[in-house]
Specification:
Structural class of chain A: alpha/beta
Distance between the termini of chain A: 48 Å
Number of domains of chain A: 2
Largest sheet of chain A: 7 strands, mixed
Helix content of chain A: 40-55%
CATH architecture of the largest domain in chain A: 3-Layer(aba) Sandwich
Low-confidence stretches of chain A: none
Largest interface: A-B, 81 and 81 residues
Oligomer: homodimer
């Protein structure tokens, strides 16, 4: 390499993003064969518009506050009233008892995760992630100086494999990251498994005399589609919980970068962690989350983009793929389907799909081979048009 | 300390912010003695409202773009068209030749600095700052793993002391941070000194076979008040220049966090640095700068808040303070006056000022003793009302 800049950052900055490259390919391909003949399932970008409440709230705060009040600095952790409004909403929704003082507003879940991991990382610490996982976990964990420990999920349902987890937890374990509803599998961790996970971590803390933080990365919390599916609020089950939330998906505003860190008030290390979050944020150049959204988003709590389109897409795709002979675990949330590739090499499988103008992402991007991710945050019309290509792809494998 | 969180971050998170504490004291004191009897010069927050163009542009983009276009992800470095618009503006204004591909949009100057320093920091590297300096430089430099090297300014005019600089530059020097117009002194580095600085750094690069980056931290660029004062555009004078810009002060929108990094296309290390900036940003959890401002701010380029109020305040204060016997260097920009404390201990001096309900900040916060900072981004009425207190303070020291 060179001696001017750190190799790690240069590599991260030049690393091709497979999903984005596929998306760019799709754009070009559409020019060649027509928009309606390319089936792009590459990116996890919300396709349902933000609820009207978002723009209405932005317009309202533009009129309601003076320029200095609205666009001025808030405290670094965020406006106190805004944080309290969000805390009140969490308490009401989940029967919990946190306050604005437990929240630190962030530029989305990515900054929440990066800050949280830096804030708790001590030399020798390890962070456990469940495979498959969102690619950036590796980046954030390693940048925080922790060792990434990958624990495979059960292949049958993409839920936690507790035997595998138990053998991975040791005296160095400092964090366990869960992401439910999950990117890329769509799995939602049921309450009984959260209870089991809490017990396992509590036992480990006692055994090793350590603190293990359960980090719940929850950008997809609101994206569940069936009445019998709920996403447990982990701080109710485990005291050393930290929530990393983003409004990106619920309010279809991923570009605006707005979310929060909630350090559970039940954690015996609450103050150490909260102040370390403030310090880590400060040292990483975070001052306050974008002020206009600190004012506008609390006016939209409980609202979401119209997520029924995702449910429709999921149902059409799931049923069709099962019919065509794909091995699919029924996804309960987020907007992803994770299906088994029909040959061992997911890249080769995706190349075949690409020859049918079906753009899907090999699971290698998510830390494991042999599967593909289908991001169904797209037009329902495109889903319908894409079905013959999925059928044809299966037929190429003799299904 | 404890073994749960890094001591450094915990300390940074709990460290009292003297300026903010003074501001909070002022709020309480106003309740006791009345709003008009407390003269709060503690915080560097713009007091002039954003130009109407800012809110107009926000309203316009809310109507012009679809929700998905407006609030969706841009590329990590920022929307290409927005970056090009800003580059075009820079080229037109400064007779330069950069492109959108040289820009990386950030959450303000703090994140620009934190990302830039991380992006260029190699083991053993040193970063030079000129004393007095904005407190957070120390935080960002040290967090990036660099050694902070403090070079005192000339006390006579707070300009670069080239002898002191020359003896501080060595084979480990990787960055020199300048901040012109300056916080806390208000000094603007004149063109002849930028030329001299460029020559000194070029010579050092040749001598040591090294790369030294000149980082221009420019949130106050537009805040100059006299026709004969210009702020040189450093990339025209020195190839290894990196600009860290923020719209916080020019557009009075510090809470919205929007700015950019511009890696000079003339740098022989442009690509290494630019991609390392992308990688460092990624690993610190920055994805894209808030999207609504990526669209709205380029529509306001060249506009500023009404800065005439700052000029009025500066002129009233400067003339009065000189008359009362204070030692003041005439400030050419930003919204700060930096005056000599009338006793060696600036804290003691500020306590005496406080007893007159005059809230000013000891220079120790900026890395040197014996001075105080007066942030005159306040109501002109308050400036006028405060003059008797400044006079009385001087009288307490026999002036």
């Amino acid at each position: 390499m060179n001696k001017i800049v750190p190799e790690r950052f240069y590599k991260l900055g030049t690393q091709p993003n497979e999903m984005r490259e596929l998306f760019e390919y799709g754009k070009k391909r559409k020019l060649e064969v027509g928009d309606d003949k390319v089936y792009d399932y590459s990116l996890g970008n919300p396709s349902s518009p933000a609820p009207a409440a978002l723009n209405d709230s932005i317009r309202e705060v533009l009129g309601k506050y003076s320029s200095i009040q609205l666009h001025g600095y808030t405290s670094s952790q965020g406006d106190q009233a805004s944080r309290q409004t969000i805390a009140d909403y969490l308490n009401k929704t989940h029967g919990f008892n946190c306050s604005g003082g437990d929240l630190y507003l962030t530029c989305g879940a990515a900054s929440a995760l990066a800050i949280t991991l830096n804030a708790i990382s001590m030399p020798g610490d390890e962070a456990i992630v469940f495979v498959p996982y969102f690619t950036e976990y590796k980046v954030f964990v390693e940048d925080a100086g922790m060792k990434l420990v990958e624990v495979p999920c059960r292949r049958t349902d993409f839920q936690i494999d507790f035997d595998a987890l138990e053998s991975a937890v040791n005296e160095h374990t400092k964090a366990v990251i869960i992401n439910s509803p999950n990117n890329p599998t769509g799995a939602v961790i049921p309450e009984k498994d959260i209870i089991k996970l809490a017990k396992l971590l509590d036992d480990a803390q006692k055994k090793y005399g350590s603190a293990i933080f359960l980090i719940a990365d929850e950008p997809y919390r609101e994206l569940v589609y069936d009445d019998d599916i709920t996403v447990p609020f982990v701080p109710k089950y485990y005291d050393n919980s930290i929530i990393n939330y983003s409004f990106s998906k619920a309010l279809s505003m991923p570009g605006e970068r707005f979310g929060y860190i909630m350090v559970s008030p039940k954690s015996p290390y609450h103050d150490e962690v909260y102040f370390s979050v403030c310090g880590a944020g400060r040292s990483m150049g975070y001052i306050c989350a974008p002020a206009i959204f600190q004012r506008a988003v609390p006016m939209c709590l409980g609202q979401t983009a119209d997520i029924s389109v995702y449910k429709t897409n999921r149902d059409i795709l799931y049923n069709a793929l099962v019919e065509y002979g794909y091995e699919v675990v029924h996804p309960d949330g987020a907007f992803y389907l994770f299906i088994k590739a029909m040959e061992p090499d997911a890249y080769a499988f995706c190349e075949k799909a690409k020859s049918l103008d079906l753009l899907i992402v090999p699971s290698d991007t998510f830390g494991m081979g042999g599967y593909v991710r289908i991001a169904y945050c797209v037009d329902t019309d495109m889903v319908r048009r894409s079905l013959p290509a999925f059928r044809k792809l299966a037929e190429m494998y003799g299904k």
